[in-house]
Every structure is written in C-alpha cells, then in structure tokens.
Amino acid sequence: MVGKPIDPSAAKFLNQQDYNSDDHNARQVDSAMMNEASLVLVMEKKHQRFLMERYPSCSGKVMLLGVWLDKEIHDPYRKSDEAFKHVFEQIEESCLSWSAKLNGGS
C-alpha cells in the first residue's frame, strides 16, 4: 500500500467533514520516524505489538489511540460508508480524549 492514495470512500467522507486528504499517500513506518516521534498512536493492538517488537527502544511511546476510551479502532478499508462514519467518530472521540489528557484534563 506504500505510495497509494487514501481510499476513495474515506476521502469522500473526510471531504464531507471539511478535512482535505488530497495529498495523503501511504508510507511505511521506519526507524527514523519512530525515533523522531514523541508519541506514536495506533488503532489496533496488533499494530502496537508489531511496532513494540520491531522498535523495542521506542515501545514506551507506542499507545493505542482509543486507550482512554478502552477500545481498539478497526480499519474500515473496503467496508461500507457507515463503517467509515463509525470509525471517524471513534477517531474523533479518541483524539478529543488524548487532547484532554495531554492538556491536563481527565
């Protein structure tokens, strides 16, 4: 998927929500990205395990996006528009939770 643009269904939905995804292309995580990051947020536990095993020195900064909501967020790739909407809502809610935590809220 490296170098591929965003899924057309996802792009359509994001555009409807006033997010521009025109310049998005898939990239592979590498050691430079991991070392540079202060925090690495992933959607699924299997992604978290993979990154923690592959980059053990960075494992302390790999967290689930939905950790504060006690949920994993599953990829809606090749699923219905309703699935994309549901995942968008989960991501949005999770980001708000992270923002509150990072800004000293509960």
How would you explain this protein's 3D organization?
By secondary structure, the chain is mostly helical. It has one domain: Response regulator (Rossmann fold). Helices cover 44% and strands 6% of the residues. The chain has helices at 8-16, 31-36, 45-54, 81-102; strands at residues 40-42, 62-64. It has a two-stranded parallel sheet with strand order 1-2. Helix 1 (8-16) packs across helix 4. The longest helix is centred in the C-terminal third of the chain and has 22 residues, at 81-102. The protein is globular, with a radius of gyration of 15 Å. The mean pLDDT is 91.
Detail the topology: elements first, then pairings.
Blueprint: H1 8-16, H2 31-36, E1 40-42, H3 45-54, E2 62-64, H4 81-102
Parallel strand pairs: 1-2
Gyration radius from CA atoms, angstroms: 15 Å
The number of domains is 1
Oligomer classification: single chain
What series of H and E elements makes up the topology? HHEHEH
- Contiguous low-pLDDT stretches (5 residues minimum) are none
- For the record, the CATH architecture stands as 3-Layer(aba) Sandwich
Strand order of the largest sheet: 1-2
Q: CATH class, please?
A: Alpha Beta
Helix content: 40-55%
User: Helix count, per DSSP?
Assistant: 4
CATH superfamily: Response regulator
Number of strands: 2
Strand content: 5-15%
* Structure class: mainly alpha
| CATH topology (fold) name | Rossmann fold
Largest beta-sheet characterization: 2 strands, parallel
Average pLDDT works out at 91
User: Shape from CA axes?
Assistant: globular
